[in-house]
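testing teh design pipeline on a random one, pls ignore if ur not involved
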């Protein structure tokens, strides 16, 4: 009911008594679609707030609205210093009129999506508009839709109007016939009359029509002597009204002395509620994103752990080489040996040409050690991710029970350390702390960051990567810098992890449409950027090159 006819009518009476003979000190805007008029009377300054948001038109007065030091704009500067002579509601529409000492008028049109504030000269020509150019500028103001106030009528007149819509629902008829009542009061009429909103008019008995008429007259009389109030359902704001609403009889209610005070309180509470919902949604989204990321990491680790046959394979190759040292010599690329365990089956073992027979055997024993260390590291990481997932699930369950901003802030404060460990920042800090790169999780649960453009590539490579991270880039063409984040330099990175990361680098390159792309990679410490070279350009050393298909492990975060 913020911009309801009777709300505006009573508000105009309050403000006429409050503002008459006061002086306009300043008129400005610092929030979208909101105009603030500060006026003074007997050294006391107050402000009139006019909000023209499409779904939330409202007007109220309050103590002085202190203007921000920046991002504010003066509006209608020509009326600064004028006196307010009168405030009233236009008799044919929801237009709040303020008459000034010069004869000019401010028309605050509280008409839904077309809400605006117009400055009219003494001849009712529009000389300025608050926001957006209006086609009426320079012309005499014309009312597009006239909404006459609900009036006192006889029972016979009431029934006559109803009879025009025999085959229409009661709610629709009342909305059309008494449009100025608004949906909320129409629902109240139906409730007080104990009639379904969907009942056809033809099905309403004469006695029920009489009850409906009496309810209509009661509502009109109550609107003539209003008192603002806010209804709450389970501590959540339900509605604002200027009369008692039987439909909300089971809800909590808070009353206010003036219409302005009630509207101001309602708007303030709604903003707090909106802020709470925004904070709660932001935190919930961050936690759900973290939960999904952890789940992907756990799946990737589980996949690697299930492939423990590598250890046995390397161990068996080492033992076969030791048992057949006499058949090996330096310079061999591979050797075919008989399987110990399966008669008649041979095994081809790749060799390093530069190594001696013993060194080739030792090389496979070293692979056994490295693979075991990698599995141990993945096991530790799995335990960490399991604990994180459990923590996220508990926090998600807890925030669904929180109902206020203060409670949410207290929760964030008590869980600050836990949230920080999970990489979850306060919602207000989200934009500042968000990772500015494309982020992926690949096999083994490793995290991969990819640059978005040349400047972003430099930022990633030079400021957000560690010396032992693996750095990737498509060879022979432009593309993203891609970094595989390595936390333990002593652990061998699985081959599948390297291939998946290389595929990301190929995907974010100019060769994305190719089927096989060469990708160079090396440790980040072997990447350097000489002074004076253009953005995104670096030089690399000790690189290896692999060929991969351009693809992503899943949709980027």
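output:
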């Amino acid at each position: 009911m913020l911009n309801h006819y009777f709300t505006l009518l009573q508000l105009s009476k309050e403000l006429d008594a409050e503002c008459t003979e006061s002086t306009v000190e300043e008129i400005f805007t610092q929030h979208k679609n909101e105009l603030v008029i500060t006026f003074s009377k007997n050294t006391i300054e107050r402000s009139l707030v006019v909000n023209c948001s499409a779904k939330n038109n409202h007007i109220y007065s309050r103590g002085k609205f202190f203007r921000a030091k920046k991002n504010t704009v003066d509006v209608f500067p020509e009326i600064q210093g004028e006196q307010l002579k009168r405030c009233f509601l236009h008799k044919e529409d929801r237009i709040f009129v303020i008459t000034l000492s010069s004869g000019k008028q401010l028309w605050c049109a509280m008409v839904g999506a077309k809400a605006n504030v117009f400055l009219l000269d003494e001849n009712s020509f529009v000389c300025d508009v608050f926001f957006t150019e209006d086609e009426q500028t320079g012309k005499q103001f014309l009312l597009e839709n006239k909404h006459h106030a609900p009036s006192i009528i006889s029972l016979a007149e009431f029934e006559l109007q109803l009879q025009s819509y025999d085959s229409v629902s009661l709610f629709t008829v009342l909305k059309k016939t008494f449009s100025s009542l608004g949906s909320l009061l129409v629902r109240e009429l139906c409730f007080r009359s104990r009639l379904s909103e969907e009942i056809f008019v033809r099905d309403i008995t004469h006695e029920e029509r009489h009850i409906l008429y009496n309810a209509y007259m009661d509502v009109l009389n109550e609107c003539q002597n209003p008192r603002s109030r806010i209804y709450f359902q389970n501590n959540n704001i339900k509605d604002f009204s200027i009369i008692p609403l039987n439909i909300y009889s089971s809800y909590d209610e808070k009353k206010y002395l003036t219409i302005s005070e009630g509207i101001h309180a309602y708007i303030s509470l709604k903003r707090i509620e909106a802020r709470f919902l925004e904070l709660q949604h932001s935190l919930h989204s961050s936690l759900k994103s973290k939960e999904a990321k952890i789940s992907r990491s756990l799946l990737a680790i589980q996949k690697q752990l299930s492939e423990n046959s590598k250890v046995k394979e390397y161990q068996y190759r080492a033992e076969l080489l030791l048992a057949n040292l006499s058949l090996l010599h330096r310079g061999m690329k591979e050797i075919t040996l008989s399987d110990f365990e399966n008669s008649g089956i041979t095994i081809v073992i790749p060799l390093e040409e530069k190594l001696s027979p013993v060194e080739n055997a030792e090389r496979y024993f070293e692979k056994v050690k490295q693979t075991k260390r990698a599995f141990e590291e993945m096991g530790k990481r799995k335990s960490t991710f399991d604990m994180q997932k459990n923590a996220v699930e508990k926090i998600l369950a807890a925030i669904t029970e929180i109902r206020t901003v203060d409670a949410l802030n207290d929760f964030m404060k008590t869980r600050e350390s836990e949230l920080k460990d999970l990489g979850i920042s306060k919602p207000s800090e989200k934009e500042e702390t968000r990772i500015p790169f494309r982020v992926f999780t690949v096999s083994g649960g490793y995290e991969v960051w990819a640059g978005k453009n040349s400047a972003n590539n430099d930022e990633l490579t030079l400021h957000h990567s560690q010396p032992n991270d693996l750095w990737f880039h498509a060879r022979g063409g432009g593309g993203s810098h891609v970094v595989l984040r390595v936390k333990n330099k002593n652990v061998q990175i699985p081959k599948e992890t390297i291939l998946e990361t290389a595929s990301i680098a190929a995907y974010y390159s100019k060769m994305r449409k190719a089927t096989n792309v060469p990708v160079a990679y090396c440790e980040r410490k072997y990447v350097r950027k000489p002074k004076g070279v253009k953005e995104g350009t670096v030089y690399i050393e000790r690189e290896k090159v692999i060929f991969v298909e351009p693809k992503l492990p899943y949709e980027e975060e």
